[in-house]
Amino acid sequence: MTNSTGNITTDVTDGYVRISLEVFTVVGLLSVAANFFIVFVVLKYKKLREDATNLIFLHVNILQATFLLATPLTIRLTMMFTEVTAVYRAVFWAHYQIEISVMFAATCFLFLMVRDWYIKLYRKETYVKFCRIYKFGIATVYVLALIITSITIQFRFQHNMFLIIYIIYIVMLASVGLFLLFLIVMNIIHAFKKRRITVGRSGTYGLAIANIFFLLWLPSVLFVIVSIDRVFNTSLFFIGLLPLGFSTPIFNLIYLYNFDDNYNVFLKQLFKCRCNQYSNETLQDQPVSYNDTNGVLISQN
Fold it and tell me: Alpha-carbon distance 221 to 200, whole Å?
């Protein structure tokens, strides 16, 4: 946002830059708040922590919040890329690769959530085994993300910058294609099998969350991929498409509040500032006692 002399450039006054900053600020704050609400209720209530799906989703929200908080710095460093120094390049690429790895880990957890959803719904006899080993899957995702980060950062300082960019684009395209194929298959299977079972309203949201994530991020990813060798329309990308992907936690919160009984109850308590109301952490409303004008004790659910 500043030139080599330290003066603020005229780009700051450009209309689309101001709009994009305002949109990012509003969407970012709302999305981080949505992540906080979900993380809080999972950590607060033991009933949610006992479900493998919720614990996997907890890591998704932590990583999404980290990505949302880190992205503004990456965008600012990108705007300042004319200041090419060794230190700047090191900071930019290290931060960029860490951010990519965070999103990669979040996507892996979404894949794990879909597997959890499928086994819980259609392979109940093997779900007990899955609950014993899913924590190893969580640890594996983090280890793999750290390895990828270290390799890509080291590769960046030993090879041309643009080569690693094209490699990331190729991997992104392959990942999007595989994830799309996987979700299509899962949705088709669910469309045929759900007629034979009664789907509950709690703990079976894995496929829905993955669908929300993919549908909201797909326009941004496709736009970046098709713009590799073309003029990049920054106004369209930063104002319209990227905030759509960043709003994923907001839609996740809305979905859970309306379609999952457990989250609905506990989020209501959070929004009403009555988090200690459920001391026994059940889903039954606890009676609230009041004294009327005559001093008679009245119980109200």
Answer: 33
The C-alpha angle with vertex 180 and arms to 206 and 256, in degrees rounded to 5, equals 25
pTM of the predicted model, to two decimals?
0.78
The Cα diameter of the chain in Å comes to 82
Phi, psi at 300, each rounded to 5° = -140, 130
Half-sphere exposure (CA, 13 Å, Cβ side) for 290? 4
For 278, the token pair is: 């459920």
**CB count, 10 Å around CB of 13?**
9
pLDDT in tens, 175-206: 777 888 899 999 998 888 877 666 666 778 99
| 29: nearest Cα among 200, 250, 258, 213 | 250
Which residues touch 283 (CB under 8 Å, ≥6 apart)? 47, 261, 262, 265
Q: What is the DSSP letter of 289?
A: E
Q: 128 CB contacts (<8 Å, ≥6 apart)?
A: none
**pLDDT tens by residue, 56-84:** 999 999 999 988 887 777 666 666 555 56
Give the tokens for residue 19.
Answer: 């709009």
Environment class of 205 (CB within 10 Å of its CB; exposed 0-12, middle 13-18, buried 19+): buried
Write the CA distances from 115 to 90, 121, 207, integer angstroms.
38, 10, 9
By the 8 A CB rule, do 88 and 63 touch? no
Contact residues for 32 (Cβ-Cβ < 8 A; gap 6+):
65, 68, 69, 249
3-state class (DSSP) for residue 298: strand
Which alpha helices (H) appear in 52-195, and where do they start and end? 52-79, 86-122, 124-158, 161-193
User: What amino acid is encoded at 239 in this protein?
Assistant: I
Find out whether 144 and 101 touch, Cβ atoms under 8 Å: no
